Amino acid sequence: MIIAPSLLASDYCRFGAEAVRADRSGAEWLHLDIMDGHFVPNISFGPEVVRRIRPLTKMFFDVHLMCSQPEVVLEPFQKAGADLLTVHVELGDAVESLIWKIRSLGKQVGLAVNPPTNINAALPFLAKIDLLLVMTVNPGFGGQPFIAEMLPKIEQARRWREERGLKYRIEVDGGINQETAKECARAGADTFVSGTALFSHRMMKSAVRKMRDGAAAAARQG
Length: 222
Ligand code: DX5
Ligand code: ZN
Hints:
Helices cover 36% and strands 19% of the residues. The chain has eight helices and eight strands; from the N terminus they run E-H-E-H-E-H-E-H-E-E-H-E-H-E-H-H. It has an eight-stranded parallel sheet. Helix 2 (47-53) packs parallel to helix 3. The longest helix has 18 residues, at 204-221. It is globular and about 40 Å long. The relative contact order is 0.16. The chain binds D-xylitol-5-phosphate and zinc ion (ZN). Zinc ion (ZN) is lined by residues 6, 31, 33, 64, 173, 193. Residues 6, 31, 33, 64, 173, 193 line the site of zinc ion (ZN).
């Protein structure tokens, strides 16, 4: 189980200190939400923020590109220190070449599916990705409620992975707290993005441990 606190929910005046806080919490990944004001109705931050926090932590940088033209920023984020770059399946015909470009930059590939999008849209790409991100809110803002109707998509992603002998991680993002993380783990998720529920905690370390242990126990129960 991997826990990925989302910097979107941190104090925007203190990105460096907040990244260090996430690091000390024991979380393995840092989730970085990149919003372009076009693919989603919000703007977050760019490669320079990622470049500045890169030397402060050894955490794996999980960059979620909510952008209409991610090809423009792939290389800047690679240079800034991203370990994995996720693009959205809603970009249609562009997806194939985006996956290729991310690979050619030597980075891991993620593919995200928005709540209204059929999970089947991800099918042609499953063998080419390292991570399938099932969005559990409509992207754009932190602090939204979890959409439980997404659980069958997670189950489907797990079924496909088993049937095809693939290895991609199954990540969930949006409204993930101690309870919803367990529901997602039961359905097959293994990577949990959580913004508000973790950054709002004074004791982030215990919140991260509780989320990881709770998810692992829920997954064992099936
Ligand atoms: C939503 C972003 C999420 C967001 C999650 O557009 O992709 O990563 O930070 O925030 P919470 O956990 O607060 O729902
Ligand atoms: Zn995200």
